[in-house]
Design a protein that fits this description.
This protein is mainly alpha-helical. The protein has one domain. Helix 1 runs antiparallel to helix 3. The radius of gyration is 15 Å and the shape is elongated.
Length: about 70
């Protein structure tokens, strides 16, 4: 059960990071050398790596939770 809690914590932290970056991108639009929208915001504000790390954290958390819930005996 401890691994499941760790996976859930990873998932929630990753999702909170993704949501935070997405909300910030809607309130502060960027134009990075002609690239607009969400990708322009990630490049212009230099949060691309933070977004990638948040996505990896979410994927790792959901993988751990899935493994602990369905595969482990």
């Amino acid at each position: 059960m401890k691994k499941m809690s760790f996976g859930a914590l990873l998932l929630m932290c990753g999702i909170m990071g993704i949501i935070t970056i997405y909300v910030l991108s809607t309130f502060h639009p960027w134009d990075y050398n002609g690239i607009t929208g969400f990708r322009g915001y990630l490049l212009g504000s230099k949060t691309l790596w933070t977004f990638i790390v948040s996505c990896i954290m979410s994927a790792a958390g959901i993988t751990i939770c899935f493994y602990e819930a369905y595969i482990r005996k």
